[in-house]
Design brief:
two-stranded antiparallel ribbon, 4% strand, rod-shaped, binds zinc ion
């Protein structure tokens, strides 16, 4: 009889600890989830800023190339000195190239 009570008591303790463990694990999951959401928000906002900056940089490079009378490689978009036969970046022939800024 004494043994039986002890066993029940032990099982109750284990159940209680397991419930506590489940709560802690759920709490941990919620924190991981929160980090995921915050990172996603941050990535979204940074992505917009990065896209704007990249657009601006491309525009500025184009402007500088036009002022320097450079030509854009149709294959790799690198800028080359006007009159170049081959692209200094990819080595492709710069025949039938469009002049930068001429649209
Ligand atoms: Zn090229």
């Amino acid at each position: 009889m004494m043994n039986m009570i002890n066993k029940n008591n032990m099982e109750n303790k284990t159940t209680h600890l397991e419930e506590e463990l489940a709560l802690l694990e759920a709490d941990l999951q919620a924190h991981y989830c929160q980090i995921g959401k915050e990172i996603l928000d941050m990535v979204e906002s940074e992505k917009g800023k990065i896209n704007d900056l990249v657009d601006e940089i491309i525009k500025l490079k184009k402007k500088i190339a036009v002022l320097n009378n450079e030509i854009e490689c149709p294959w790799c978009m690198a800028y080359n000195l006007s009159g170049s036969q081959y692209c200094k970046h990819c080595g492709e022939k710069l025949n039938a190239i469009e002049r930068v800024g001429e649209e």
